[in-house]
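Write out C-alpha coordinates for Cyclase family protein.
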Amino acid sequence: MTFQFDRNDPEAAIAEAAERCSNWGRWGDRDVRGTLNHLDDGKRREAAELVHRGAVFSLAQRFDTDGPQKGWRRRTNPVHTMLDTGTDAAAGSQGFPHGIGGADDVVSMPLQCSTQWDGLGHIFDRARAWNGRPAGEVVTAAGDQVTGIETAADGFTGRAVLLDAGRALGEDGELPDGFAITAEQLTEIADRQGSAVGRGDIVLVRTGQLTRARRDGWGDYAGGPAPGLSFGTAEWLHGTEIAAIATDTWGVEVRPNEFADAFQPLHQIAIPHIGLFLGEMWDLDALAADCAWDGRYDFLLAAAPIPITGAVGAPVNPIAVK
Protein backbone atom coordinates (compact mmCIF):
# COMPACT_ATOMS: atom_id res chain seq x y z
CA MET A 1 0.00 0.00 0.00
CA THR A 2 2.88 2.33 -0.75
CA PHE A 3 1.93 5.58 -2.46
CA GLN A 4 4.09 5.91 -5.57
CA PHE A 5 5.52 9.39 -6.06
CA ASP A 6 7.96 11.30 -8.23
CA ARG A 7 10.84 12.54 -6.09
CA ASN A 8 11.52 15.27 -8.63
CA ASP A 9 8.02 16.74 -8.50
CA PRO A 10 7.05 17.41 -4.87
CA GLU A 11 4.24 19.79 -5.79
CA ALA A 12 2.43 17.16 -7.83
CA ALA A 13 3.17 14.36 -5.36
CA ILE A 14 1.80 16.31 -2.41
CA ALA A 15 -1.31 17.34 -4.36
CA GLU A 16 -1.99 13.77 -5.49
CA ALA A 17 -1.50 12.34 -2.01
CA ALA A 18 -3.81 15.01 -0.57
CA GLU A 19 -6.56 14.02 -2.98
CA ARG A 20 -6.15 10.26 -2.54
CA CYS A 21 -5.85 10.34 1.24
CA SER A 22 -8.37 13.01 2.15
CA ASN A 23 -10.84 12.44 4.98
CA TRP A 24 -12.45 15.87 4.57
CA GLY A 25 -16.15 15.63 5.33
CA ARG A 26 -15.95 11.97 6.36
CA TRP A 27 -17.26 12.69 9.86
CA GLY A 28 -19.18 15.82 8.99
CA ASP A 29 -18.28 19.45 8.41
CA ARG A 30 -17.90 20.21 12.11
CA ASP A 31 -15.59 17.36 13.01
CA VAL A 32 -12.62 18.21 15.25
CA ARG A 33 -11.30 14.73 16.10
CA GLY A 34 -10.14 13.36 12.77
CA THR A 35 -8.89 9.79 12.92
CA LEU A 36 -9.68 9.53 16.63
CA ASN A 37 -13.18 8.79 15.35
CA HIS A 38 -11.84 5.33 14.48
CA LEU A 39 -11.17 4.65 18.18
CA ASP A 40 -14.57 3.94 19.72
CA ASP A 41 -15.86 2.44 22.97
CA GLY A 42 -15.68 -1.07 21.58
CA LYS A 43 -12.01 -0.68 20.70
CA ARG A 44 -11.29 0.60 24.20
CA ARG A 45 -13.00 -2.42 25.74
CA GLU A 46 -10.88 -4.69 23.56
CA ALA A 47 -7.75 -2.82 24.62
CA ALA A 48 -8.55 -3.32 28.31
CA GLU A 49 -8.52 -7.09 27.75
CA LEU A 50 -4.86 -6.90 26.64
CA VAL A 51 -3.68 -6.27 30.20
CA HIS A 52 -2.29 -9.56 31.55
CA ARG A 53 0.74 -8.86 33.75
CA GLY A 54 -0.01 -5.31 34.85
CA ALA A 55 3.45 -4.16 33.75
CA VAL A 56 3.54 -0.38 33.26
CA PHE A 57 5.83 1.71 31.04
CA SER A 58 6.09 5.48 30.81
CA LEU A 59 6.92 6.43 27.22
CA ALA A 60 7.88 10.04 27.96
CA GLN A 61 11.29 11.60 27.88
CA ARG A 62 12.17 13.70 30.89
CA PHE A 63 11.18 17.35 30.69
CA ASP A 64 14.31 19.22 31.76
CA THR A 65 17.11 21.46 30.48
CA ASP A 66 19.09 18.44 29.29
CA GLY A 67 16.79 17.98 26.30
CA PRO A 68 17.22 17.90 22.54
CA GLN A 69 16.05 21.40 21.62
CA LYS A 70 18.50 23.94 20.18
CA GLY A 71 16.29 26.98 19.61
CA TRP A 72 14.89 26.25 16.14
CA ARG A 73 11.77 28.40 15.70
CA ARG A 74 12.14 29.45 19.34
CA ARG A 75 11.84 25.89 20.62
CA THR A 76 13.85 25.56 23.80
CA ASN A 77 14.15 22.94 26.53
CA PRO A 78 11.97 23.31 29.65
CA VAL A 79 13.05 25.74 32.36
CA HIS A 80 12.00 24.66 35.84
CA THR A 81 11.99 27.33 38.57
CA MET A 82 11.17 26.95 42.26
CA LEU A 83 8.78 29.52 43.76
CA ASP A 84 8.88 28.15 47.32
CA THR A 85 11.44 25.77 48.80
CA GLY A 86 12.36 23.88 51.92
CA THR A 87 14.92 26.58 52.60
CA ASP A 88 12.11 29.14 52.72
CA ALA A 89 10.16 26.92 55.10
CA ALA A 90 13.18 26.46 57.37
CA ALA A 91 13.69 30.22 57.44
CA GLY A 92 10.09 30.74 58.51
CA SER A 93 9.50 33.18 55.68
CA GLN A 94 6.41 31.61 54.12
CA GLY A 95 3.90 33.03 56.58
CA PHE A 96 1.98 29.82 57.28
CA PRO A 97 0.74 29.02 60.82
CA HIS A 98 1.57 26.17 63.18
CA GLY A 99 4.76 25.04 61.45
CA ILE A 100 3.38 24.00 58.08
CA GLY A 101 5.60 24.75 55.09
CA GLY A 102 5.64 23.83 51.45
CA ALA A 103 7.27 23.95 48.06
CA ASP A 104 5.90 25.27 44.78
CA ASP A 105 7.29 25.56 41.28
CA VAL A 106 6.71 26.68 37.70
CA VAL A 107 7.80 25.39 34.30
CA SER A 108 8.28 27.48 31.17
CA MET A 109 8.51 25.57 27.88
CA PRO A 110 7.31 25.30 24.30
CA LEU A 111 4.52 22.75 24.19
CA GLN A 112 6.36 20.66 21.60
CA CYS A 113 9.80 20.59 23.17
CA SER A 114 9.67 16.94 24.27
CA THR A 115 7.28 13.98 24.19
CA GLN A 116 4.07 15.34 22.68
CA TRP A 117 1.17 15.07 20.28
CA ASP A 118 0.82 17.27 17.22
CA GLY A 119 -2.75 18.55 17.19
CA LEU A 120 -4.88 19.01 14.09
CA GLY A 121 -4.21 22.75 14.01
CA HIS A 122 -0.44 22.28 13.84
CA ILE A 123 0.05 21.93 10.06
CA PHE A 124 -1.74 23.42 7.05
CA ASP A 125 -1.73 22.62 3.34
CA ARG A 126 -2.10 25.59 1.03
CA ALA A 127 -3.61 27.61 3.89
CA ARG A 128 -6.20 24.91 4.64
CA ALA A 129 -6.46 23.19 8.01
CA TRP A 130 -8.07 19.87 8.91
CA ASN A 131 -11.40 19.23 7.18
CA GLY A 132 -10.75 21.96 4.61
CA ARG A 133 -11.19 24.92 6.91
CA PRO A 134 -9.32 28.18 6.16
CA ALA A 135 -6.21 28.13 8.32
CA GLY A 136 -6.61 31.79 9.29
CA GLU A 137 -10.05 31.10 10.73
CA VAL A 138 -8.85 28.08 12.71
CA VAL A 139 -5.65 29.26 14.36
CA THR A 140 -5.36 32.91 15.37
CA ALA A 141 -3.24 34.81 17.86
CA ALA A 142 -5.68 33.53 20.49
CA GLY A 143 -4.86 29.91 19.61
CA ASP A 144 -6.66 27.14 17.79
CA GLN A 145 -10.28 28.21 17.92
CA VAL A 146 -11.65 24.98 16.42
CA THR A 147 -9.39 21.96 16.90
CA GLY A 148 -7.47 22.97 20.03
CA ILE A 149 -5.83 19.99 21.70
CA GLU A 150 -8.43 20.12 24.49
CA THR A 151 -11.01 18.76 22.03
CA ALA A 152 -9.05 15.49 21.89
CA ALA A 153 -8.11 15.23 25.58
CA ASP A 154 -10.10 12.02 26.12
CA GLY A 155 -9.30 10.37 22.81
CA PHE A 156 -5.99 8.61 23.20
CA THR A 157 -6.82 5.51 25.23
CA GLY A 158 -6.99 2.23 23.35
CA ARG A 159 -5.10 -0.63 21.74
CA ALA A 160 -1.58 0.27 20.72
CA VAL A 161 0.83 -1.71 18.57
CA LEU A 162 4.59 -1.28 18.71
CA LEU A 163 6.36 -1.78 15.40
CA ASP A 164 10.03 -2.16 16.33
CA ALA A 165 11.61 -1.16 13.03
CA GLY A 166 14.98 -0.68 14.71
CA ARG A 167 15.22 -4.33 15.69
CA ALA A 168 13.55 -5.67 12.57
CA LEU A 169 15.43 -3.67 9.94
CA GLY A 170 18.54 -2.21 11.56
CA GLU A 171 21.82 -3.27 13.01
CA ASP A 172 22.06 -3.53 16.80
CA GLY A 173 18.45 -2.38 17.07
CA GLU A 174 18.90 0.99 15.35
CA LEU A 175 18.12 2.40 11.91
CA PRO A 176 20.60 4.83 10.38
CA ASP A 177 19.65 8.45 9.80
CA GLY A 178 17.96 8.90 6.44
CA PHE A 179 16.41 5.41 6.44
CA ALA A 180 12.92 5.66 4.90
CA ILE A 181 10.52 3.06 6.33
CA THR A 182 8.03 1.89 3.71
CA ALA A 183 4.45 0.72 4.05
CA GLU A 184 5.50 -2.79 3.03
CA GLN A 185 8.09 -2.85 5.79
CA LEU A 186 5.55 -1.70 8.39
CA THR A 187 3.22 -4.51 7.32
CA GLU A 188 6.06 -7.04 7.30
CA ILE A 189 7.12 -6.05 10.83
CA ALA A 190 3.55 -6.36 12.09
CA ASP A 191 3.21 -9.80 10.48
CA ARG A 192 6.54 -10.97 11.87
CA GLN A 193 5.60 -9.81 15.37
CA GLY A 194 2.11 -11.27 15.14
CA SER A 195 0.60 -7.87 15.88
CA ALA A 196 -1.70 -6.86 13.05
CA VAL A 197 -2.51 -3.16 12.70
CA GLY A 198 -6.12 -2.21 12.18
CA ARG A 199 -8.91 0.29 12.63
CA GLY A 200 -8.69 2.44 15.73
CA ASP A 201 -5.19 1.33 16.74
CA ILE A 202 -2.50 3.70 17.96
CA VAL A 203 0.75 2.73 16.23
CA LEU A 204 4.16 3.30 17.82
CA VAL A 205 7.22 3.02 15.59
CA ARG A 206 10.60 2.60 17.22
CA THR A 207 13.58 3.48 15.01
CA GLY A 208 16.29 3.40 17.65
CA GLN A 209 17.36 7.00 17.03
CA LEU A 210 16.63 8.00 20.62
CA THR A 211 18.76 5.07 21.80
CA ARG A 212 21.62 6.44 19.73
CA ALA A 213 21.10 9.99 20.96
CA ARG A 214 21.27 8.84 24.55
CA ARG A 215 24.51 7.03 23.87
CA ASP A 216 26.25 9.56 21.62
CA GLY A 217 24.66 12.87 22.66
CA TRP A 218 21.74 14.83 21.24
CA GLY A 219 23.64 16.21 18.24
CA ASP A 220 21.06 17.12 15.58
CA TYR A 221 18.29 14.94 17.01
CA ALA A 222 15.98 17.97 16.99
CA GLY A 223 15.42 18.70 13.32
CA GLY A 224 18.43 16.98 11.80
CA PRO A 225 18.77 13.76 9.78
CA ALA A 226 16.71 10.88 11.10
CA PRO A 227 15.17 7.56 10.19
CA GLY A 228 11.43 7.73 9.77
CA LEU A 229 8.35 7.06 7.71
CA SER A 230 8.59 7.43 3.96
CA PHE A 231 6.26 9.88 2.24
CA GLY A 232 5.00 6.76 0.47
CA THR A 233 3.34 5.57 3.69
CA ALA A 234 0.62 8.21 3.33
CA GLU A 235 -1.80 5.76 1.75
CA TRP A 236 -1.04 3.14 4.42
CA LEU A 237 -1.71 5.68 7.18
CA HIS A 238 -5.03 6.49 5.53
CA GLY A 239 -6.08 2.99 4.52
CA THR A 240 -5.36 1.22 7.81
CA GLU A 241 -7.70 3.62 9.59
CA ILE A 242 -5.40 3.94 12.59
CA ALA A 243 -6.26 6.51 15.24
CA ALA A 244 -2.77 7.99 15.68
CA ILE A 245 0.91 7.23 15.21
CA ALA A 246 4.00 8.13 17.25
CA THR A 247 7.74 7.57 16.93
CA ASP A 248 10.94 8.01 18.91
CA THR A 249 12.18 10.74 16.55
CA TRP A 250 11.79 14.51 16.40
CA GLY A 251 9.53 14.55 13.36
CA VAL A 252 8.05 11.09 12.57
CA GLU A 253 9.03 11.15 8.88
CA VAL A 254 12.42 10.44 7.36
CA ARG A 255 14.92 13.28 7.26
CA PRO A 256 16.28 14.56 4.96
CA ASN A 257 12.84 14.45 3.39
CA GLU A 258 12.58 12.52 0.14
CA PHE A 259 12.18 15.57 -2.08
CA ALA A 260 15.00 17.98 -2.82
CA ASP A 261 12.87 20.98 -1.89
CA ALA A 262 10.32 20.11 0.78
CA PHE A 263 9.77 20.40 4.52
CA GLN A 264 7.92 17.62 6.32
CA PRO A 265 5.68 16.71 3.35
CA LEU A 266 4.15 13.71 5.14
CA HIS A 267 2.95 16.06 7.90
CA GLN A 268 1.36 18.13 5.13
CA ILE A 269 -0.81 15.13 4.22
CA ALA A 270 -1.27 13.36 7.55
CA ILE A 271 -2.52 16.23 9.70
CA PRO A 272 -4.65 18.54 7.52
CA HIS A 273 -5.93 15.87 5.07
CA ILE A 274 -6.05 12.53 6.89
CA GLY A 275 -6.78 14.19 10.24
CA LEU A 276 -4.12 12.02 11.85
CA PHE A 277 -2.49 12.90 15.16
CA LEU A 278 1.30 12.52 15.18
CA GLY A 279 3.32 11.80 18.32
CA GLU A 280 6.96 12.81 18.46
CA MET A 281 9.97 12.16 20.70
CA TRP A 282 8.43 9.20 22.52
CA ASP A 283 10.72 6.95 24.57
CA LEU A 284 9.98 3.43 23.36
CA ASP A 285 13.14 1.61 24.45
CA ALA A 286 12.05 -0.07 27.69
CA LEU A 287 8.71 -1.04 26.18
CA ALA A 288 10.42 -2.48 23.11
CA ALA A 289 12.76 -4.56 25.24
CA ASP A 290 9.80 -5.96 27.14
CA CYS A 291 7.91 -6.73 23.93
CA ALA A 292 10.95 -8.58 22.57
CA TRP A 293 11.13 -10.54 25.82
CA ASP A 294 7.50 -11.65 26.08
CA GLY A 295 6.64 -11.66 22.37
CA ARG A 296 3.58 -9.42 22.81
CA TYR A 297 3.58 -6.17 20.85
CA ASP A 298 0.04 -4.94 21.51
CA PHE A 299 -1.13 -3.44 24.79
CA LEU A 300 -3.36 -0.87 26.43
CA LEU A 301 -2.15 2.70 25.95
CA ALA A 302 -3.36 5.82 27.76
CA ALA A 303 -1.77 8.94 26.26
CA ALA A 304 -3.91 11.96 27.06
CA PRO A 305 -2.36 15.33 26.16
CA ILE A 306 -2.48 18.17 28.66
CA PRO A 307 -5.74 19.92 27.64
CA ILE A 308 -4.31 23.39 27.12
CA THR A 309 -7.15 25.38 25.56
CA GLY A 310 -6.39 26.40 22.01
CA ALA A 311 -3.01 24.63 21.82
CA VAL A 312 -1.90 23.09 18.53
CA GLY A 313 0.14 20.45 20.35
CA ALA A 314 0.71 19.37 23.92
CA PRO A 315 3.06 17.42 26.17
CA VAL A 316 2.06 13.91 27.15
CA ASN A 317 3.21 11.16 29.49
CA PRO A 318 2.04 8.07 27.58
CA ILE A 319 1.45 5.00 29.75
CA ALA A 320 1.56 1.51 28.26
CA VAL A 321 0.08 -1.33 30.30
CA LYS A 322 0.73 -4.99 29.40
